[in-house]
Amino acid sequence: MTAISAGQTTNAITRVQFEDAITRTVNNRKRIYNASFALSVRWERDNTDASTDTDNFQAILSTLNLDQAEVMVLSEQDGTPGWTFQDKIRRMFQRATMASGKSIVFVHYAGHGEVRSGQLFAVEGRPNRRINLQRLIDSVVAGDVQDFDIGDTDTVFVLDCCYSHVATRAYDPTTRVVEILAACDDSNPIALTPPRNTLTGKLRGEIARRKHDSHQSVILADVMATIRANSTVVKPTHIVKLGVSICFRFTGVMRIDPSTLAPSLRAVFSVRIVENMTREQLERFLTWIETLPLGYTIELDAVYPTTSTLLIFQSAYTVFVNLAGYPGVTFISEVTSTNRRKYLKQEQRQEDRSSTLKENIPFSRRPKP
């Protein structure tokens, strides 16, 4: 991927980079894992019924045909729960990197969460012991967990706690994936707890539904987009910090290609391209995006040429979350309806035609008010 030079603006992306990012998003269905590792973490002294979400998480892994998670209950008697947690994580990544082929690691946390100095902490409650989850996430993004190189291991964090949305994406075109499934967002940072439908519970239901409906595969970003579209109280947040959202293929005879289905949630966003795109380049780009599968459709709503090029897009939310964090990509809004702008002139013409017909009707034939 072409890097942006020092002389170019840092809040823009090159045309080649942008097209490559879209291509990586659409072609992310080829990853095969030879080994999977998972850890579900909760506090012993927990009043959120987190054990229910541990069971939900195990069911998710089973549906995806992955190995069951090791359950870690942080003891009330443990004087250094942070060190205990970090040691467990380090040993899990060691096993993942030593396994043959490609490995994936799942880290699931259910319980209380809080933000301190802009960082996410897992919190016991009383007596308020805490673990810095943000530090772990940042170390996994850096590829170095307690001075141990995690190599090409993909990682998924499922954070079913309050304020879990605070993590942000680090732009890095890499073959390795780090993505976060968080229970809440800025508008309502308070996560639900059992028996209400938590993030882990929603993930379990939505992934199982897709398998039951004979989908060939499931992409985590698409699952989260559907959950977000259907959530009325607390909306989850999905972040791809590195790479592209992970896709899992279901086993057995599956008839439906999910890429042929219309998205349940769409996003409007702007992209600032470093260079001023020529008419030929823009036409070639439009021709290309028209060939994308229905589940990855991208519509160009506006083009503003300056010394650079500002483009306004509407796309499947799944596409946007894989682009979010790249330089020059700015979120505008999520939508469930189409762009009305293209229909306004048509609606106006229909109104004008109706008005003209009404005026031409003889007075005696006009309907009584």
UniProtKB/TrEMBL annotation:
Q: Where do the record's region annotations for Disordered lie?
A: 344-369
GO molecular-function term, one example from the UniProt record: cysteine-type endopeptidase activity
Xref: InterPro entries: Pept_C14_caspase
Peptidase C14 caspase domain location is 49-166
What's a GO biological-process term for it? proteolysis
Ranges of compositional bias, category Basic and acidic residues: 344-356
Identify one Pfam family in the record.
Peptidase_C14
This protein is called: Peptidase C14 caspase domain-containing protein
Specify the taxonomic lineage: Eukaryota, Fungi, Dikarya, Ascomycota, Pezizomycotina
